[in-house]
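Extended Data, panel c. Modelled sequence:
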Amino acid sequence: MQMLSLCFVAALAPITRLIPKLNTVQAGHLSWLSPVAAVPVILLYMWYLSAFIKCRHEGEGLGELILRGTGKVAGRILLAVIAVYFLLYSGFLLLSGVSTIYHAGKPWPFVAVMLILGLIAALGKPKALLRLTKTILPLIITVLALVLVFSLTDTQLGGLLPVTVYDAVPVIKGAVPVIDIVFTVPAIAAFLLFETDKPSNFGKLAVWGLGVCLVISLISAAIVGSFGAELTAQLTHPFFIMVRNVKLFGTIERIEAVIVSLWLFSDFALLSLLIISASHCLRLAFGCIIDYGAPRLFDMKKGRWLIPACGLVIAAAALLLGDSAPRLEYISQRIVPMMNLALGVIVLPAVFAVGKIRK
């Protein structure tokens, strides 16, 4: 349950950054149906991921499974490649998360603070991050529910209709970014399974995936119903624009400060998840003997020096990317989804197949 709580909180970062812009570009006013079209594929993927997870031994995560399934040489190379991608993704996330909500000046002070917090989380016990997200989750769900309820009350239902058979292909195309988001976060979180003795089975993963699809559908309906499909497709971050217009009980306005604070926590959760997964993959790739106990914060033995080293790589990646909004938008909408799909649809299933053959 704690792992799925972390997955939900972390998934809100790409959901609010990309939805419903990307699915509306493809599906138009029916972007709210794209998550429905994504359900069969998501359920199939959750079945595969649960089957993969069942192959683990006690105390193993996805990194150990990759190493055991593909062999030491190929496994270490693959883990190093995955780690590099996670670090580059982290550098991008630092910039995109801050630039989404802060436009007044240079983002670097906020980037530095977020990176330090992510490194502290990675240097500590991963279970602390799991407990923290589980504690914050009810508050996030409550705020999200309030935003959706008061946004949907102002929605023009006519803007979400009609639905015809000719809309099937656009709706299916709009399901691709939904699939990408729902695939990626549980796959990354699977690298932390060494922290739990009871990984989620297919039923729990399926319920989680359906819940995320429902949230995406409601967000899409609220925004497209308020702004229209054409304007939604042109906006950079329509979710946060919708939040600025929310009125609670018709009187309380300007609640975006509270929501932004919670959504910064989503970025922190995803960043911490990426840093922990990347550093763990690198420690396995370098053949470090990993102590799965409770580490001291500044203990750099047994490969833990790779965690601050990861921070340096992330900082370098962020500096190289720069704070150019068009560049970040292109990476967010093109490069990152393509790489995530490659990891979830090609790399991990190939590892699963190779492991079954070698077994």
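DSSP finds 14 helices and no strands in the chain. This feature is highlighted in the accompanying rendering.
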